[in-house]
Design goal:
heterodimer; A: 303 residues; mainly alpha; MetI-like fold; 2 domains; two-stranded antiparallel sheet; 14 helices; B: 421 residues; alpha/beta; D-Maltodextrin-Binding Protein, domain 2; seven-stranded mixed sheet; four-stranded mixed sheet
């Protein structure tokens, strides 16, 4: 019987590792390896079109990046679009979740409905929005015209293009965040609200004094996730341009970092420089995620 | 119901193995028994649909699958596929703006030999020839240059509508074209402008210069070539006179501009006629074609290449040669309007006397072959396509009122220098 006991012990110790093995294999192949390889490429002058001819240049790409005005421009655009989309998005999501949690008929239909924008193809969504924000025949300009505001060339200006892109992002992600908020709202013990009712607290007071503080971990989670996603935006500005050029408008007014990386990698074929941008973006995101975590934790603590 | 632990462990291991092998399996190759599938990747409209049928009937073992993408996307995809040495089609279309870039990496393409050299316009043949004498692409069409215009809009604006009179309006050059534009603008039908966009006007004007963005030695001369600055200034003047519909070439808004009739004239290489027919189907008979101010010129035109990474290089070469053969080029001219790159065809009656009913029976055969014969070929360097886009963006900045001509020019020049890095 000792052999079967040994087998059982091996099984006991080994099988958990076996269960999680697929994830680590896939992560290694599609996550870790590209990450490390990109790091290696970023220290080279690497010509993509010339069958990957390359030469080690150390930190050269990073040094160039820090003095590249177009990089800083892209960074600024990314942050601006991120703030414009994330802040209203999360506030709206919170409010929608609150509505869905309480007083609606056919709640299930609405709960499913808010997720619809998220499962629609990003390309389709962006193309439709790009048409709506069209200069000559767009619906938004038509509506503005009805109330007497002159047509806006949405692509032309920095503020207008950022606003339009932020709206596309919001459209896709508000419902998703609302569902996450809703899920954790439902985990809040109901007796808290009953007690508040007995004490005569209003709906608004209950929302700010009970719901929001109890949602603290979820709010931190969604903020961090939205930050990671928001700083990587590429499809929206690329397709918003309508001409397929990755420069983000005539004056790079809506070129994000990810789009800048795409331009350098797949138009200039400077694979090394693009990899340096990718790594810098990764560091920027990590930095923002940490700052965000600290900030949201403090804000939530003060409640 | 409990499974033994060993069974569960085994199941997990099997699942992992299946996932791994599933990821390793790539898509099927093109051949299936006796039939060979050839993938043809193109941009815009080459007008080959009917020809594929014909070829497949004559060669039952060949199946042709065409995919098309937008102009910029297509060329970017092709380069990516060349770089990774996988994913390219058996035949890939390449535009004049990108052929020099492909020529630089000639080893990625199959040598198509020298047999057909005598058929082609010499400059068309040269442009796809690598430094070591390898031919990477069969020319399909050349652009030539004319002006397409809307008869109905001209009439409403009180300008002549007959093509000879219209040609005479600007026979003396581009300044006369702008003059006609100002007359048009004074009485223009609501919602229309004289031409489509500054970038496209610029392309036409620079296409007529003996030297464009590159000197023969493949040095970029955008900043120093007076012809570039002349074309820029002319485009800026046209924009400042309010003649531009401010549409960006190859954009969705531009496409809509054809359908909605937002502009009265457009610089019209032969392939633009195919574009007009595609985008403004119900404007048949309203368009007409006049000659271009400033003499012959070229804008665009394409090649068919056979990437070396393909699995059916021989079959692909045969198909590419057939699609670009004189008989087929002649058919495509009469069906789509794409101007042949084989000069022997220019004197054939079915080409030279061809009149296009869509363009109010304009003698497009005569117009374009005459223009092609007069054409002064211009040397194209590796980044021609991207330089064109950069200059277009510069003109768009002026159209959008973001910058003055001088500010935009300075930025454009430095952006072009950046491209050369």
């Amino acid at each position: 019987m000792s052999s079967s006991a040994r087998l059982a012990r091996l099984d006991h110790k080994g099988s958990p590792y076996l269960y999680i093995l697929p994830f680590f294999l896939l992560f290694g192949a599609f996550g870790l390896f590209p990450l490390v390889y990109t790091g290696y490429v970023s220290f080279n002058d690497w010509d993509l079109i010339d069958a990957g001819a390359h030469q080690w240049i150390g930190l050269g790409n990073y040094r160039e990046l820090l003095t590249d005005a177009y990089f800083w421009n892209a960074l600024g655009n990314t942050l601006s679009i991120w703030v414009l989309s994330t802040v209203p998005q999360l506030l709206a999501a919170l409010w929608i979740a609150h509505l869905l949690n309480h007083r609606l008929r056919t709640r299930t239909a609405f709960r499913m409905g808010v997720l619809l924008p998220n499962i629609t193809s990003i390309v389709a969504v962006t193309l439709v929005f790009a048409q709506m924000f069209g200069r000559d025949f767009g619906m938004v300009n038509w509506l503005l015209g009805v109330v007497g505001i002159g047509p806006v060339d949405w692509q032309a200006d920095t503020w207008s293009s950022h606003l339009a892109i932020a709206i596309i992002v919001m459209w896709r992600w508000t419902g998703y965040n609302a569902l996450i908020y809703l899920a954790s709202m439902q985990a809040i013990p109901h007796d808290l609200y009953e007690a508040a009712d007995l004490d005569g607290a209003s709906q608004t007071q209950q929302f700010w004094r009970i719901t929001v503080p109890m949602l603290r971990p979820t709010i931190i989670f969604t903020t961090v996730i939205s930050t990671i996603g928001g700083l990587q935006i590429i499809a929206e500005p690329l397709l918003f341009a309508g001409s397929g050029t990755p420069t983000g408008g005539s004056d790079r007014q809506f070129q994000t970092i990810a789009l800048f990386m795409y331009e350098q990698g797949f138009r200039e074929f400077r694979f090394g420089y693009a990899s340096a941008i990718a790594w810098t973006l990764c560091l920027v995101i990590a930095l923002f995620a940490i700052v965000n975590l600290l900030l949201t934790r403090r804000i939530a603590d003060e409640e | 119901m409990r499974l033994s632990r060993t069974v569960r462990a085994l199941a997990a291991a099997t699942a992992a193995a299946i996932m791994l092998t599933a990821c390793g399996d790539s898509g099927g190759s093109g051949s299936d028994g006796d039939t060979v599938t050839l993938n043809v990747n193109l941009f815009g409209n080459f007008g080959y649909k009917a020809l594929y049928e014909e070829y497949q009937q004559a060669n039952p073992s060949i199946k042709i699958k065409e995919s098309t993408a937008a102009y910029n996307d297509h060329h970017r995809d092709l380069v990516t596929h060349l770089a990774t040495n996988s994913g390219a089609g058996d035949i890939e279309g390449v535009d004049t703006g990108f052929i020099a870039q492909m020529r630089e990496v000639g080893k990625q393409f199959t040598d198509l030999g020298t047999e057909r050299e005598s058929e082609y316009l010499p400059w068309k043949w040269q442009a796809s020839l690598t430094a070591d004498g390898k031919q990477i692409g069969y020319g399909t069409d050349v652009g030539g240059l004319a002006i397409c215009y809307r008869r109905d809009f001209f009439e409403q604006a009180g300008l002549p509508t007959e093509r000879d009179q219209v040609s005479a309006l600007w026979a003396s050059g581009w300044d006369a074209y702008l003059e006609a534009g100002r007359k048009y603008a004074a009485k223009a039908p609501a919602g229309t402008s004289f031409f489509d966009g500054g970038g496209q006007l610029f392309n036409a004007v620079i296409g007529q210069a003996p030297v464009g963005y590159y000197s023969e030695g493949s040095t970029i001369v955008v900043a120093s070539n007076p012809e570039v600055r002349k074309a820029w200034d002319l485009s800026v003047r046209a924009i400042q006179d309010g003649l531009s519909a401010k549409l960006i070439g190859s954009s969705t808004e531009w496409n809509a501009g054809f359908a909605k009739g937002q502009f009265a004239t457009i610089a019209c290489p032969a392939w633009m006629m195919a574009k007009i027919k595609d985008q403004s189907k119900d404007a048949s008979g309203k368009w007409d074609v006049a000659s271009v101010p400033g003499g012959g010129g070229n804008w665009g035109g394409s090649y068919l290449t056979v990437p070396a990474q393909g699995k059916h290089v021989e079959e692909a070469k045969k198909l590419a040669a057939w699609l670009t053969a004189p008989e087929q080029q002649a058919k495509i001219f009469t069906s789509q309007g794409l101007l042949p790159s084989i000069p022997a065809l220019y004197d054939k009656p079915e080409i030279a006397e061809y009149k296009d009913p869509f363009f109010h029976d304009a003698p497009v055969g005569k117009l374009f072959t005459t223009a092609a014969k007069e054409l002064k070929p211009q040397y194209q360097g590796p980044r021609t396509g991207d330089i064109q886009t950069t200059i277009r963006d510069g003109l768009v900045r002026i159209e959008q009122g973001k910058q003055t001509s001088e500010e935009s020019w300075t930025q454009t020049v430095s952006d072009v220098e950046r491209l050369a890095k």
